[in-house]
Model the fold of this input.
Amino acid sequence: MVRMVAAGVTPLDHTILSGHFPLSKAPLVLGNEGAGIIEGGDPDFPDGTRVAFLGPFGVFEDGTYSEYVEVPKELLLPVPETIDDVAAAGLPVAYLTAYLALMNAGFATGKVVLAPAIGGSVGNAATQLARALGARHSISSTTSHAKAEEAKALGFSEVIDLTTEGLADGVNRITDGYGADVVIDGIGGKILSDALPALARGGSLITLGYSAGRESTINVTDLIWKVASIKGFSLLSESAAARNAAWSVIADLLASAQVKPIVAKTFPLEDAAEALRYLIEERPLGRVILTI
Ligand SMILES: NC(=O)c1ccc[n+]([C@@H]2O[C@H](COP(=O)([O-])OP(=O)(O)OC[C@H]3O[C@@H](n4cnc5c(N)ncnc54)[C@H](OP(=O)(O)O)[C@@H]3O)[C@@H](O)[C@H]2O)c1
Done:
């Protein structure tokens, strides 16, 4: 049993609450991820162990916007000592998605990565992970000039300000016309359309979300002429073994501060509705977390 300390607020919670995720059925407690303390543990996870987790919670069964959650052992992710519970609550979905999507796209040291939306959880995690794992360039973007400035101040030096420059123009400027080997796109809509011409020859675009819309226009020559590819990714389809292996890499990068989780704002559990509104309408740079 995990005594919850904090829960991550994600766009999926909003999608489900809005009735746009047909596999979820009401009544349902929301919350797909979170962090807390083990109670009633065993030798592998003794009482008091700090853990984070994700799983079917808040989608197919009651979720993490809750005081206690019963979590199968294989879903428990040990939290590095240097990471506090609030930051830990927002790690599993974004970081496991970003890491496994990068690997699915054939990421390796020296590749150029584009992960749009530096303020979004997946965009930020993919940008940080690619940088830490030795990308030649780890590029992101934002549709907000203020957020571009905020990102620069936080040390993200390759963020394209879409109020002043197109996505592909920015990638070409930063890479001297080479393009992006890997695109991790959680935004969809026009961002996906605009990212395709930024692909390098043989590049791969992973589509995994639709914050800006489920429909995109594809110029097929962006794929044909560059022998590039586009494919989907779903964290829910990844095995617990794959997620646990990914977590051990991520935990090492967290422990050595090569990646640094960003929390934009916390809300008490009773203000969950306002927290969700804040995430979707204000589009902060960093995570929104419920404290329990
Ligand atoms: N397939 C999977 O396994 C998987 C896993 C995790 C997440 N997801 C999905 O991936 C997507 C991104 O998740 P996230 O947590 O990174 O989202 P998020 O934290 O809410 O970030 C969304 C960002 O998208 C940017 N954006 C650009 N155009 C937008 C528009 N028209 N409306 C709203 N936002 C817009 C905004 O950045 P700027 O304001 O800076 O432009 C915003 O900060 C979601 O759809 C989520 O459900 C899928």
Observations:
- The chain has two domains: 2-91+261-291, 94-234.
- Residues 10-12, 93, 97, 117, 119-123, 142-144, 147, 186-187, 191, 208-212, 233-235, 279, 283 surround NAP (CB under 6 Å).
